[in-house]
Amino acid sequence: VIAADATYAPMEFIAKDGKTIIGADVDLGKAIAQKLGVKADFVNASFDSIIPALQSGKYDMSMSSFTITKKREEVVDFVSYMTAGTSFYVKAQGGPKINTLADLCGKAVAVEKGTTQADDATKQSKDCQASGKKAATVLVFPDQNGANLAIASGRAQVGMADSPVAAWIVQESRGQFKLS
């Protein structure tokens, strides 16, 4: 049983049938299972619940775009199979130019709960204040879809996600978002 937060396309997301979990991590997980001679059963779970559920034995493993951090390594084992950075995305028309974390000062930032992006945006907000600038308003959502909706609705000015995910969000937005 493999846990994945199926709101993080193209890595893991729900297919058009409304129930099947698909994506790059799913393809890789199924290939690993095939090599091991077992069946891969992917289960959708909220990102921030996955590590505690792994600790309790609810799932055998997870493939869900985790950034390996020292804190996470204290409680679960990781196999690094991909390197991805973070990208910023904004509304295509009138969105702010965001090149670095420092550009988040005074902006409303949408992120998914439990992600390194949530941690980075929160730390940057404190750094903004410490340097005499206006803090970033960090809006944390239970899944990536909520973060995307916050930007689309104007509640947030910028989103942060793993680079392949941000690129996917922009591509699928039909011109509504752009990478910054």
Features of the shown structure:
34% helix; 5-stranded mixed β-sheet; globular; 3-stranded parallel β-sheet; 6 helices; alpha/beta; 180 residues
Structure explained in plain terms:
The chain is of the alpha/beta class and 180 residues long. 34% of the residues lie in helices and 22% in strands. The chain has helices at residues 24-36, 47-56, 70-73, 116-130, 144-152, 163-172, and strands at 2-4, 7-8, 12-14, 21-22, 42-44, 61-62, 86-91, 108-112, 137-141, 158-162, 177-179. The strands form 3 sheets. The protein has a 5-stranded mixed β-sheet with strand order 9-8-10-7-11, with helices on both faces. The model has no long low-confidence stretch (mean pLDDT 96).
DSSP strand count: 11
Distance between the termini: 37 Å
Largest sheet, in brief, is: 5 strands, mixed
Helical segment tally?
6
Average pLDDT taken over every residue:
96
Give start-end ranges of low-pLDDT stretches. none
Tell me the helix content. 25-40%
User: How are the strands of the largest sheet arranged?
Assistant: 9-8-10-7-11
Shape: globular
Q: Give the topology string: H per helix, E per strand.
A: EEEEHEHEHEEHEHEHE
Structural class: alpha/beta
Radius of gyration: 17 Å
Query: What portion of residues belong to β-strands?
Result: 15-25%
Summarize the entry for a quick read.
The chain is α/β, with parallel strands linked by helices and 180 residues long. It has 6 helices and 11 strands.
Ordered list of secondary-structure elements with their pairings:
Elements: E1 2-4, E2 7-8, E3 12-14, E4 21-22, H1 24-36, E5 42-44, H2 47-56, E6 61-62, H3 70-73, E7 86-91, E8 108-112, H4 116-130, E9 137-141, H5 144-152, E10 158-162, H6 163-172, E11 177-179
Parallel strand pairs: 1-5, 1-6, 8-9, 8-10
Antiparallel strand pairs: 2-3, 3-4, 7-10, 7-11
